[in-house]
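input
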Amino acid sequence: MSIEFPTPSPSLLDRINAKRAELEAARAAFAKDMQESMKGVFAGFFAKHSAATAIMWRQYAPHFNDGDPCEFSVHDPEIFFEGDEVDTSYPEGLCPWSLKREIGKTTEGGAFVTQEMYDDFYAIAVLLQSDDDTMRSIFGTDSQVTVTREGIEVEEYDHD
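output
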């Protein structure tokens, strides 16, 4: 005994494909709009804190999580200052809790870390880590994002 399934009508398939195209266009517009909005946030940060030269973070889903589901997340952002080398293969910037320990001190590169600078960087870290789905839409999966005064650079990140 065989069961016959009806074939979807061409008009239904056309509608599905058209709706998919609309959805993809809306996602692309959303990502572009959010990236432009974030550029404004970062521009304000760099204008206010001239010693800061870059903010970098990585976002990905791990390949192995000791038997637990591997879920996408935005990892801690790091801040770099004048005199710091932004080595994207092995970054050594300051993450929010490391920067907090430097309040009132001068970094190796000569930047003086203020409470206001920490507060502003912490607010950016909270923003970046507040909605993983949005960040994936904006910057992609398996990405390393570096923000400078010149703009935002997104590179593919291999986290093996």
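quick obs: The first helix runs from residue 10 to 48.
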